[in-house]
Amino acid sequence: MPEPTPATFPPRRAAGRGPGWYRGDLHVHSLLSYGADLTPAQLAAAARALGLDFLATTEHNTADGHAHWGPYAGDDLLVILGQEVTTHTGHWLALGLDPGQSVEWRYGVRDDAIGRHLDQVRRHGGLCVAAHPHAPYPHGTSMYPYRCFDAVEVWNGRWASDLPWNADNEATLAEWGRHLAYGLRRGDWQPAVGNSDAHLAGQLGTPHTVVHAEQLSTEAVLAGVRAGRSWVAESSTVDVTLTATTADRSVGVGERLTAEDQPITVRVQVVGVPSGTITLHTERGLVHRATLPADGSGSTAWRTNVDEAGFVRAEVRHPNRHLAALTNPIILD
């Protein structure tokens, strides 16, 4: 990689990109991380080939790679500066760091130190994400409660794998789902994200997070994640739309629908999951199931009201039960 200079830091905004849905990977490693063998140039080329709009550089416990990314960012690819903070009792992603800003990692849950390091990131406008909470190695399994963070990496890498270090995504999803209703009631719920944790060729973008942002900038993308205006896709061939509608209003993922006594129609449209299954989930658990046709494109509708559901979220799975997509909730008042 080239020697870093201040001039090579990437811009925080891609020019001319207004409100819309943007796809990106918020957990990516290059040669500066243990076990990774990709250069920034290779990662940027792969991101563009996959149709990603943004990625975050998150090396283990160092900001040394920030200055290498400037030549590879552009109006078509936003690069968010970050770090994977590998504490003794769990990892987390610090996203939206200033150029060269690093975060301390040498502590564990018994040290009662994580709070001040999270605050350090937030003071600079950054976002803090619990990374792969159920990774099957001692310091990878998170001992910190989800409520410490702004979001949770519910999906890390390929959904299911026999690799000994692969995160247990099913366990993370179940834990996140159990805590969602309580968090929404308190007003401090943690949205879900999904990232590849790419170390090797062929991993980038599997999965990635699709975010509604006011523009393609670091601040706007992180604001969309923080608000839960996002969903997670296995690949760029998968598309999901979740809406909740009354007679006079319609909202989407991460938004709030006040319905009083009105009936609510929840709709899901899916592309790219052949013979898959759509399920809807509320605080009562699984409430609706529908099967997609062989071509992978279809929709389903479910009717409810605010007495029956305080939120609704969607999952889409392949016939082998591996996840193809999941959404953050729509909140029903």
Automatic annotation (TrEMBL):
<dbReference type="InterPro" id="IPR052018">
    <property type="entry name" value="PHP_domain"/>
</dbReference>
<feature type="domain" description="Polymerase/histidinol phosphatase N-terminal">
    <location>
        <begin position="24"/>
        <end position="89"/>
    </location>
</feature>
<dbReference type="InterPro" id="IPR016195">
    <property type="entry name" value="Pol/histidinol_Pase-like"/>
</dbReference>
<protein>
    <submittedName>
        <fullName>Histidinol phosphatase</fullName>
    </submittedName>
</protein>
<dbReference type="GO" id="GO:0004534">
    <property type="term" value="F:5'-3' RNA exonuclease activity"/>
</dbReference>
<dbReference type="InterPro" id="IPR003141">
    <property type="entry name" value="Pol/His_phosphatase_N"/>
</dbReference>
<dbReference type="GO" id="GO:0035312">
    <property type="term" value="F:5'-3' DNA exonuclease activity"/>
</dbReference>
<dbReference type="Pfam" id="PF13263">
    <property type="entry name" value="PHP_C"/>
</dbReference>
